[in-house]
Amino acid sequence: MKGIINRGAVASLILSRTIYGINWFNMAAIFVLVAPDFNQNISGLGLVTGSFYLGLGIFQIPGGVLAAKFGPKKTAVYGTVIASLAAFLCAFSTEFFQIILLRFLVGLGMALFFAPGVTLIAKYFRREAEGLSVGWFNAVFYLGGAIGFFVWSVLAEVVGWRLSVVISGGLGLLSALSLIILVPKDSVSEHFTVRVSDLRRILSDRWLLLLNLELFGVVSGSSLVTTFMAYYLTDALKVGTALAGLIGSLAPLSAILASPIFGLLHDKTRNARKLLFISGATLALGLSIASLGTIYFAAISSIMVGFCLSAALTIGFAAAREVRPAGPEYETLAVSWVNNIQMFAGFWSPIAFSILVVSFGYPHSWLIAASYTFLLISIILLRTGKRSVSV
User: Fold this and answer.
1) Residue 188 lies in a domain
2) H helices then E strands: how many in the chain?
3) Residue 360 belongs to some domain of the structure
4) What is the DSSP string of 155-208?
5) Residue 306 belongs to a domain with what CATH number?
């Protein structure tokens, strides 16, 4: 690809992000096999997912601060090691609370990897292709997600769920080694210090806050499909585990296509507001289609939600990189901040959905979630001044 400056570094980041995606999604695919070992149901899946997103949310900003102080490569390596080791150790859990704790640590490690990874991959693409670099970074995440959903649902049935997470955790540790070898050493000024005034300027930037709230709405809805679709198909529609994993994998598979397309659209149009609203509203529509209660509509829902989730995240992160209210050293922190609040949507949304399902059943729960998601997504239509118009 012509836009790449350092192919070895990009290949390592792509590999790490792909395995990151596997370890993100595979627990949702195999939970139907995990649950009987610990006498759990859909509420247990909600707790595991909520814990994972809590770790992701809490450590986004610390990850950005660490990258500013010590460099994005070092932060990304530590994050990959923590996430991969925690995923590996899930195989040796004897109590359900251990799974919950370890998935929190997986989220923590992924929080330390993500924003530094965005900064690094954009650095190794030429300036006119930076939006595309974020698109590819998201695309391979969803490739990993598709593998995690489908391949791991089959693998877990063949070798058992415990060995399957040993394999995914081990692959993550190998990807950390590739980062150490192939990504160039960080160039961080010895005299640079993180100033409170700079942090305040970033965290209070109106456009970054709006992007945060928009992505909060996107993840509030999309996390329900990426978490519950496979379980919903086996639990409510009595679909086999492999077929449920295949249908669940349609979300990340469709996202693979959306990421580079919307990365290019952002590079060409620079109209983040319009692209975010269109993708978000279509995502809410796709979420409502799941309420129709057939395998075919579940597949359509997965495709629509996955495509629009990837589109919104690609646009949001690319737009965040361009807002630098406190200097280029804080680029990673700006991306971390935009990724921060939306992760808390992934914490509470699955827990709330599991409660709704127990109380009202799946069809009403999908419709309630779709309505709420649309209301949150509409926040992008608010005006925030000249900065928001330009990005």
Assistant:
1) no
2) 16, 0
3) yes
4) HHHHH-HHHHHHHHHHHHHHHHHHHHHHSPPP---TT----HHHHHHHHT-HHH
5) 1.20.1250.20
